[in-house]
Amino acid sequence: MDWGKLNRLQSIFHPTSGNTVMLAIDHGYFQGPTTGLKNPQETVKTLLPYADCLFATRGIVRTCVEENTRVPLFLRVSGGPSILGELSNEDVTVSMKDAVRLNAAGVGLSIFVGAQNEDRTVSNLAKVVNEAQEYGIPVLAITAVGRDMVRDARYLGLACRIAAEIGADIVKTYYCEHFESVVKSCPVPIVIAGGKKILEKDALQMARNAIDEGAVGVDMGRNIFQSESPTAMIQAVRKIVHEGATVDDAYALFEKLNDHKPLA
Ligand code: R5P
After folding, report:
1. What integer is the mean pLDDT of 153-171?
2. Which domains does the chain have, with CATH numbers?
3. What pLDDT sits at residue 264?
């Protein structure tokens, strides 16, 4: 890997733990104003200080993130359909030049393996990897799951491996039973998405399991910004990802810091 790309990729990992807590706030690109993200400026202001990396669209970066931020940005560069349409109908939405202009540490896009437009989304990934190579920008592939698709190790293993084979430098996928087999068969690092909001303790358990089974971190959204206390939750997640805390210890921290101030 060339120096610039390695340097950008390493910028999202904690120097001591070697893991990362990426904060995913890109949901509006197909869900519109989502709970916890209805006022994106507020969400960014509240949570950015605790993130190792922000995963967002260029529109949110331009309007909600201070130019002097020290937090590396991964830019979502795919989109198109809304929640009302066929989700796999995505195209590439951001040029690599614009990603460079925004000083992105990396770019990310979804592939929809097994969905109607599987081939198009995998070829979107290939095109983005080719272009990103020219600039030394790392690419994160997201194994998006269509509405009717299962999230088991066989399916997620297939999607992660395809993403790595096409050239992704890092993959975001979901946690599942037998997750370690997904990690083992994927030659690049994996971070987990959190998925739909669940109880805080369960989300911490999922993060614990994922790290124990080989993930290098999380790229978590709803289980942080939709928590009853987003700042407490992200700090509890950090305790798991960076300090090797048990779920009980991380949850105790959540309870201690819980200010009962959810985001709109
Ligand atoms: C989908 O909207 C995006 O790829 C999210 O960044 C990803 O799903 C992580 O967010 P969450 O933890 O809410 O699933």
Report:
1. 97
2. 3-257 (3.20.20.70)
3. 97
Positions marked active-site = 172
Please give the Cα distance from 236 to 65 (Å, whole number).
Answer: 23
Q: What angle do CA 10, 232, 176 make, to 5 degrees?
A: 60
Q: What is the pTM of this model?
A: 0.97
**Can you tell me whether residue 8 is helix, strand or coil?**
helix
Pairing relationship of beta strands 91-92 and 78-79 according to DSSP bridges? antiparallel
From ligand 1's centre to the CA of 192, what distance in Å?
9
pLDDT in tens, 211-257: 999 999 999 999 999 999 999 999 999 999 999 999 999 999 999 99
- Pick from 53, 140, 142 the residue to mutate for probing ligand 1's pocket: most ligand atoms within 8 Å of its CB: 142
- And the tokens for 114? 């097994």
